[in-house]
Amino acid sequence: MAGIERHMYPGNNTPEGFFSYYQYILSQEEADRIICIKGGPGVGKSTFMKKIGESMLQKGHNVDFMHCSSDNSSLDGIVLRDKKIAMIDGTAPHVVDPINPGAVDSIIHLGDYWDEEGIRKNRNAVIRNSERVRSIFGRAYNYLAAAGKMYDNLFSIYESAIKNEELYKLAAKIIGDELIHREICLNQGDIKKYFASAITPTGFENFIDTLLSGYKKIYLIKAPIGVSSERMLNLFMEGAVYRSLNVEGYYCPMKPSTKLEHLLIPELRLAFITSNLYHTIDLSENPAEVEVINLDNIIRYDIIKYQEPILEDSRIKMRELLEKSVYCLAQAKKEHDKLEQYYVPNMDFLKIDSLRLELTQKFSQS
User: Fold this and answer.
1) CA dist., res. 296 & res. 224, Å (int)
2) pLDDT for 65-83, tens place per residue?
3) Nearest to 291 by CA among 173, 159, 168, 169
4) Torsions phi, psi of 260, nearest 5?
5) Beta-strand pair 197-200/71-80
6) pTM (2 decimals)?
7) CA distances from 330 to 21, 140, 145, 202, 232 (A)
8) Where do the domains of the chain lie?
């Protein structure tokens, strides 16, 4: 029987530039082994990890596939959850180096399997392509930063119209229904942070449905763009953590450090999921009990009616700026793909495959 697979993003393209939650993939304390994969574009890092993950999945192990926000078909890492083993792409922009070499961490450098002289023949082309990639990413992040300002307009207007008493009353009821049976403890639970959705070269992508397998109850939070559920979700997160429950928080690419968008409490098989224009969630085939929370009901639209032209203009401009950022990300990917042509012909993929099979066997036996 195959294991359970989940998909997510450990990093994202955001108004703050590339934003990383890599430190939450697998901590030094909980990991049995963390392997950093090094090497240039096209050397097979993603395929190497993907094939190991798929093999372990077929052997019945649970695997988290960590996707790359700059290439949705590529992986930045995998976590073999029941084995407590992580493999992570340790190259830019998410440079990862061993913290406890030998004891926990190790490095696999796929550069050991390339013909360096063959690559050096294209030295100038590689440098030019790399500079173009960095330049285009810079433009993408400028558009995202501008889109972030339009989001701030939406957020500040809606925030001024929230019925706070209704928000806290609703949060208190849910905490009473779902968490009150657990005692508050001195030992706090652990928090992991990721992204369930991403701004990618192919547009707005998400893997939310893969996170909800086996959950018994899902609170589906519906909200217009700019209406934040983060205050309510932070209350749920704190309530769970203070009751010694481990949680997973999934953040919004538009406010990556602060805006909690989805919350999972695995031990209770309880999930809080936000559905909006950019990630509409369909739970019609999920067997879990679903309770809908419509945040439209706690907004006093009458007091912000005079700002409707600003709301509409900000929504339109944010959408246009996001589309331009996606265009730039697609252009950056094209340039990055060109880099691969200088590496792929100079790689010994047979030896890399042999290493992959050897590692898969080791992981299976550990």
Assistant:
1) 7
2) 999 999 989 999 999 999 9
3) 173
4) -75, 125
5) unpaired
6) 0.94
7) 23, 10, 17, 7, 35
8) 5-114+347-365, 162-299
